[in-house]
């Protein structure tokens, strides 16, 4: 599988999305701003933020400082955090607009601010709430200030019950210990691109020390974290590793000079622990 840091995937909309993203979960203040700038310095072009992360404005501030990189070469993702109580689509729409003003601070005569990908962060609110949220995203896309729309943490029954159009993306927790195979299968069959959050297992020391991971890393003279990211890439996912340490940001992108073989992938696939393998908030069982 020939991949580089410039590799992209074509979404169902026809637009391209980078194959590797930079996550900013829990990154605040100066460390977030510096992290985004460092990520773009080493070649990342996708930043994944969210309303719940409370750093959209920091991401926006960092992006406008990337003077050598045009806005069209940046892929900005954020997420609307829904309520457990359904809200009218009009209210959801207004909340989404606040994200636009925070995360894209560019505003020229040639191009107005826009969000490349807006996701619904979780399947909260029941079917009515999800439908209202989705209609707000569809409206934003029709108006052009959101390019692509998708979801996060949606299970198969959530995806099936959404109004049209189908989401272009479903962002879920994915790593060898949490493979969510039923959701992955449905998305692949329905041309829904899969993004993998927590691809580094939230730096869980016990899991990072797993003998299988350690042996494969030694075999390829790579770090365990690099093996995890490479596994995700070879599965066809878009991993979103997060770090604010410059050396880690760089090493997380140094995954294109080796390839996991069939035995490596088979053994890693065998680490799946099902729902018990989730190491973070994973609300896929919402009614």
TrEMBL record:
Residue span, NADP-dependent oxidoreductase domain: 30-272
Top-level taxon: Eukaryota
InterPro entries cross-referenced by the UniProt entry: AKR, Aldo/ket_reductase_CS, NAD(P)_OxRdtase_dom_sf, NADP_OxRdtase_dom
Annotated PANTHER family: 2,5-DIKETO-D-GLUCONIC ACID REDUCTASE, ALDO_KETO REDUCTASE FAMILY PROTEIN
Full protein name: NADP-dependent oxidoreductase domain-containing protein
Annotated source species: Kwoniella shivajii
